Amino acid sequence: MTIFDKTVNRRNTDSLKWNVGEGELPMWVADMDFKTAPCVTAAVVDKAKRGVFGYEEVPESWYDAYRCWWAARHGWHIEREWLCFTTGVVPAITSGVKCLTAVGDGVCVMTPVYDIFFHSIENTGRRVAESPLTYDGETYGIDFDGLESVLRQPRTTLLILCNPANPVGRVWSREELAKVGQLCARHGVTVFSDEIHCDLTEPNVGYVPFASASPVCAEISVTAVSASKAFNLAGMQSAAVVVPNAQLREKVVRALNHDEIAEPNSFACTAAVAAFTSGGQWLDELRAYLSGNRKYAERFVRAHIPQVKLTAQCATYLLWLDCSAVTDDSEALCDHIRKTTGLYLNCGAKYRGNGRYFLRINVACPRSVLRDGLRRLKEGIADYVEAK
Predict the structure, then answer these.
(1) Which pTM does this prediction carry?
(2) Residues 105/125, Cβ–Cβ less than 8 Å
(3) Backbone angles phi, psi at 117, to 5 degrees
(4) Mean pLDDT value of segment 300-312
């Protein structure tokens, strides 16, 4: 048994994920059911013992931690002045949309993609300019001709990129990213790259930071990164934006400060520094465990739910289930599964694109919980098919 096999009772702890009915099993929001790395807990407890929680500055150790982690893990050498603290990737995206576009502008997204992007765009009076990904029945790709047709529209001024992609699980190649950057530069479009899932790839699978794909990509981009997904620290409200271009950086940093999301709470920097300086071995063990969960789920689905298939993925802990042989209404299917089995998943329709054929399931949990969830999935889909 590994540390990741141990269950953690999160009911009645004010957990968003676990605020569900008795007997329900939540496998929806991107929140792991594992305790964070012990080095993070130790650092936070030590900070808490001081008993003083006044205003905080971003320490030099925070800049060093990000720079060393991305250089060692991802081969991206970040200059100190490129970095700015922010309270979260989503707040930074919304702030970026507001400062880099005008009301009524089109913001391009490649769908299906993380649904909060749509909120950041539409809630600020901008328009979603959708460029659907290609899908061959197994793997997603970028439709570059379709993407360029969206980028060349006069009022398209920003592309929000998900790298690696949530929910489809693709790690974009250097060549793909460089081509995206080339097209965006050609049409005067800035790129905001959400790279929050970058440390959650399959073992021995790397990712390419968008800004490192080419000099052009670096000049036209804003990148958001964080320890929150890899180390299960979303509640710490801690992230960073990286902006190599000085003029672009001035706009973004000014906006983050204007929106009051550039100052840390008492634990935000402490947790991130501990994760990025001492959490490497724990993360590698986590990635191996998640890989095992992914393989277990693949075997189970293939053997027991043959009308459903998993798309090819090598990043995130969010599996993307192709249910097109069962339904074209993932919302109805998702609701039925929850009603009949208590299993709470994400319906794919919320991610747009071809998401109406898909369900998203979070497998960042102990293997015993995963087995329970897959059993419920099997029962729910069987009942749905029988009821049709």
Answers:
(1) 0.98
(2) no
(3) -55, -40
(4) 97
